[in-house]
Amino acid sequence: MAKNIMIQGTMSNVGKSLLAAALCRIFRQDGYSVAPFKSQNMALNSFITADGGEMGRAQVVQAEAAGIAPDVRMNPILLKPTTDVGSQVIVSGRVQGNMRAMEYYRKKTAYFPAVLNAYSSLAAQYDVIVIEGAGSPAEINLKKDDIVNMGLAKRVDAPVLLVGDIDRGGVFAQLYGTMALLDADERQLVKGTVVNKFRGDPAILQPGLQTLRDLCGVPVVGIVPYTDADIDDEDSLTGRFSRTPARKLIDIAVIRLPRISNFTDFSPFERYSNVSLRYVDRTGDLHQPDMIILPGTKSTIADLLWLRQNGLEAAIHKAAAAGTLIFGVCGGYQMLGRTIADPDGVEAAGMTEIAGLGLLDIETVFAPEKVQAQTRGCLPAISGALSGLSSMAYEGYEIHMGRSGQGLPPLIGKSTVYGTYVHGFFDAPGISDAILRALCDARGIDSAGLDSFDWQSYRQQQYDKLADAVRSGLDMELVYRILHREV
Q: CobQ/CobB/MinD/ParA nucleotide binding domain: which residues (predicted)?
């Protein structure tokens, strides 16, 4: 049976996911077989496994860091927000339905056996399980029937490292306040604290660290430096939405829909030194990009209405008429069609049909059953601006409730407007290069300045960079003593 260690945080976005990914990488580097685990994740960034199950992308990143294939057992419960008070509930990779928050909390104990079964199955297969909590264990209004923080730690007897984020300020109060709100048996599970995202000389912290040790009754396991390792973000707390990069040789604008999902689809474009990738939610910020991307969304109809009401639909039509490349992915692809119908109320948007942008010759109908599948192959002959993609190999995954016709190729389009259901489409070798070359050709500029980019190799380098930073900041001898129950 596997050894385990659990990362819990003082709040959301303190770096739990990346620390868990780093430990997965470190244990793998040190010769262990290791798997990540998060019992319940709330995110719109999801992934489809080889057997068609859906899971959160944070655990996909952690699995990649561990050198293993993503598996829904690593994230047995995924909540995908559909409204401000409700989510689509996915258990063991399959949709259970849309639920309001209170309905889910009434039912979640019924899902706990699936969580424990998934954990036990992984623990029988791997040497080490790195467990990630969610939010904070000190959310005392949610502690009853907890299945993701201390409630899970108790059930699987996991030692806990409690992480605070010094970059957000008040890290000593974060850590001590969290410990103070834990029950006595919960405090016994905490074997150390971690100060994360530190910039500067750690010696500055030493007077406070001794007080923190005395107050919390556990050692400080480490001070992890702020690192710029380029790892996919878990969800919309990402800082990339607030960036305003200056226009570069090629400029790409992604429409930041209210319920944008799988925005990691576009990460490959950010790695080119001469490409600017911007997230835009106002017409005044659109300007004149070389390419406009309509991304995936958990609420296609509601977000299409938003697009229409704030003027971005008209701006996209104007750009398309001027020859700007328009590309839609999943929900964005559906928006580009003639109509979207939801006869069964799958999206709960209160509309049975809505006109699309009319830029692609497709009609979409939502169905109760979700399409969940990995896909790969070679693209057919492509006409228009992206003819350079013809016959290129692609791979990725589909995850959508809508159907837009039978027998459609993986990429359709005409002239300068294209769409696909394939998430991860731009990751495949050569795809991003070919699109950027087409954008350069349209501008009459030399594409040689873009270089080419090996996305897969780059990701592995970034996992190693993250692991090096975390290894340098943690007392790994103490971490291993905690892992082996010597503390």
A: 5-231
What is 242-309 written as a DSSP string?
G--PPP-SEEEEEE--TTEE-GGGGHHHHTSTTEEEEEE-SGGGT-S-SEEEE-EES-HHHHHHHHHH
Q: What does each C-alpha distance from 368 to 98, 107, 177 come to in angstroms?
A: 11, 21, 45
CB-count exposure of residue 175 (10 Å: 0-12, 13-18, 19+): buried
Return left, alpha or beta for 377; rule: phi > 0 is left, psi -120 to 50 is alpha, else beta: left
Q: For residues 16 and 8, what is the distance between their CA atoms, to the nearest angstrom? A: 7
Compute the half-sphere exposure of residue 111: CA atoms within 13 Å on the CB side of its CA.
25
339 phi/psi in degrees, rounded to 5: -145, 155
DSSP readout, 366-400?
A: EEEEEEEEEEEEE-----GGGGGGTT-EEEEEEEE
Task: Count the residues in the chain.
Answer: 487
* pTM of the complete model: 0.85
Locus of tokens 């390419």: 291
Note if 423 is an active site residue: yes
How crowded is residue 228: how many other Cβ atoms within 10 Å of its Cβ?
9
3-state secondary structure of 3: strand
Contact (CB, 8 A) for 474 and 23: no
Calpha distance 429→426 (Å, rounded): 8
Q: 24, 400, 423, 440: which is the annotated catalytic residue?
A: 423
State the Cα angle at 398 between 354 and 374, rounded to 5°.
165
d(CA 436, CA 415): 16
Q: How confident is the model at residue 238 (pLDDT cuts 50, 70, 90)?
A: low
Instruction: Name the β-bridge partners of 375.
Output: 396
Active-site residue, 330 included: yes
Least confident of 178-182, 202-206, 378-382, 412-416: 202-206
Rounded to an integer, what distance in angstroms lies between the CA atom of residue 336 and that of residue 346?
20
Q: Within the chain, how many helices (H) and strands (E) appear?
A: 14, 24
**CB-based burial of residue 213 (10 Å sphere; 0-12 exposed, 13-18 middle, 19+ buried)?**
middle
Place of tokens 């107050």: 215
Q: What are phi and psi of 410, to 5 degrees?
A: -65, -25
Residues 6+ apart with CB under 8 A from 415: 383, 384, 385
pLDDT in tens, 314-334: 999 999 999 999 999 999 999
What backbone torsions phi and psi does residue 341 show, to the nearest 5 degrees? -115, 140
For 484, the token pair is 């082996």
Residue from 24, 330, 400, 440 carrying the catalytic annotation: 330
First to last CA, the chain: 19
